[in-house]
Amino acid sequence: MARGAALLATLMVVVMVVAVVVVVATAADVPFVDTRDGRVSGIVEESVKGRDFSSFYGIPYARPPLGRLRFKDPEPFPDWGAMGEASIPAPPCIQYFSATERVGIKEVLGEEDCLYLNVFVPKINGDASFPVMVWLHGRKVHPWQCPGVPSSRPPGPRHRAGGGAVPAGCPGWVVCGELVTSLTRGAACVLLFSLLLSHCTGFLSTEDLAMPGNLGLKDQTLALRWVKTNIHLFGGDNMRVTIFGESAGSAAAHLLMFVPEVQDLFSRAIMQSGTALTSLTINNNPRKEAIEVGGSLGCPTDQGSNTLLLCLQGLDAKALFPRYESSRRWGVLPLTFTPWVDGRFLPRHPALLISEGRSTRVDIISGITRDDGALFALPALAKKQLLEELQHNFSMAGPASLQLEGRSEDPEAVARQLYLHYLGTTHVTEAHADDFMRMFTDHYFAVPHDRISAHHAGKIYRYELQHYAQLSFGQLICPSCDNKCKQCLAHNLPEAPRRQH
C-alpha cells in the first residue's frame, strides 16, 4: 500500500506537467539556445511562488498543412532555428467540441497552421542532461486549458505564470512553472500540438495514398523525431523520453507503441484514461466517412480519390467541422475521424499485436479515474431525448452508445446484454446514474486498461484516481446532475476546472 501511495503521489506530480526544456540566460535575462541555423530566444516566466523558468513558444516542427499538404503526410519544417524569437505562442489547431457550448463556445476555433511545439526549462546554467517528457493532448478543447498562451499576452522577457498577463483559468501554466522550478533533479518536457485535435483534417482517409489518414499520429511522430534530434540543445536526454497524455492523447501514446518507425523515439509512457483497445480508437471504415463528408460538401464522390481530395483541399477548413457533428447517432457517439489500421504506418490492429505480446517493450503507467464514463452518461442524463431513444429505439441507440457497430455480429444483442448486466433494464432514468456511469467506465476505460495489464510486454504500474475534486468536468457537461460525477474524465489534469477567486 505504501508503495502504491508513493507511486500515485509521483504520478500526480507527473500528470500535471504541461511542458519543459533547458537553456542559458543572458545578462539581459533573455534565455536562448544556439542552433546550426541561428540563435533562438525565449522568455523568462515566474511561477506563483516566485521562481524563474525559461519558456520557448511556437517552435515549428512541420510545414503548415495547408493547400496541397492538407490531408497529406506531414513534412519536416526546415531551418526551425532561423525563427529567431520564440516568445509568441502559435494558435491551437482548428477544432470543434460541442460540449463547450455550455460554457459559451460554439464556433470552430483555432487555425489549420498549428504544427508547433512549446518547451519550458528550469532557469539553470551549465550543461544538463534531463529526462524528457512529451505531452500528447487529447482531441477535445478545454476553454480553461488556454491551448496556446492567449495571443493578447504582451511580448517581453518576463511574465508571471498564473497571474499578471497570463489570465487566471490557465492552471497548466501555474503547474508548469511550479514543476519546472521545484523538481530537485529537473526535467525537460515538450508540449506539442497536432492534427489529433482537428478530427476531420487529422484523420479523414480514402484508404489510399490520396488521403492516407492517421495524420494526427504522424504529426506526433514527426514531433518526436524533432525531440530526438534537437532536445539536447535544451539540456534534454533524447535517450530518456517519456510520452504521456489523457483521453485521446493517452490512446495516441498507446498506439505509438505499435508504430514501427517510432520504436526508438521514446522509452516510457504514461496513459491516463485512454487506450488503443477501446472501440472509440480504431476506425473500421474511414473511406465511408470520407465519401459522406465529400458528398455533404458538394464534392464529387464517384470520380476517384484524387478528385475528391482536390475538392476538399479547395474548401475553407472550417466548413469541414459541422460534418463532425452530423455523423453522430446518439449523443457524441459514434466518434468519427479516428486512426485506422492502414497496413503501413499502423501495420496491424493493436488488439491482435498486444495479445501476441508484440507491443513496444517500454515501462508504462496506466490508469483511469473512477467515473471516466461520465463523459457519456452525464450528457444523456441531462438530455432526456437520449434516454428516450434508449427506451424506444434501442436497436439503434444501444449499439451506438457503446460504439459496437461493425465490431460484433449482433451489436444489438451485445448492447442489450451489457445494459441488463449493469442496469437491469434499457429504460434508463436518473436513478440509474451510478450504474450507467459504471457501465461506460468499464466498457471504454477500465476493461481496456485491464487488458493492457494482462498482456503488456514491459513493466506496468496501475492506478485508479478516486480523489474528489471541488469542481469537475462533469459540472460543465451536466450542470444539473447534482454533482453525480466526482472523479470524472480529465480530473487527472491540472486543467480541470477550478474555482476562480
The structural class is alpha/beta
Compute the gyration radius: what is it? 22 Å
What is the count of distinct domains? 1
CATH architecture: 3-Layer(aba) Sandwich
Number of helices: 15
Helix content: 25-40%
Instruction: Write down the secondary-structure element order.
Output: HEEEEEEEEHEHHEHEHHHHEHHHHHEH
Low-confidence residue ranges: 1-27, 141-158, 160-172, 494-501
Shape: globular
CATH topology term: Rossmann fold
What is the mean predicted local confidence, pLDDT? 79
How many β-strand stretches?
A: 13
| CATH homologous superfamily title | Alpha/Beta hydrolase fold, catalytic domain
Q: How many angstroms separate the termini?
A: 36 Å
Strand order of the largest sheet: 8-4-5-6-9-7-10-11-12-13
Main sheet attributes: strand count, strand direction, barrel closure: 10 strands, mixed
Q: Percent of residues in beta strands?
A: 5-15%
The CATH C-level name is Alpha Beta
How would you describe the overall organization of this protein?
There is one protein chain. This protein has helices at residues 2-14, 171-182, 200-203, 215-230, 248-256, 286-296, 305-313, 322-326, 350-355, 374-382, 384-392, 394-401, 411-422, 433-455, 473-477, and strands at 24-25, 31-35, 38-41, 43-46, 52-60, 116-122, 130-136, 158-160, 188-192, 236-246, 268-272, 363-369, 460-465. With 501 residues, it is of the alpha/beta class. It has a single domain (2-477), classed as Rossmann fold. The strands form 2 sheets. The protein has a 10-stranded mixed sheet, with helices on both faces. It has a 3-stranded antiparallel sheet with strand order 1-2-3, with no helix packed on it. β1 and β2 (31-35) form a beta hairpin. α10 crosses α11 (384-392). The two termini are 36 Å apart. This is Carboxylic ester hydrolase.
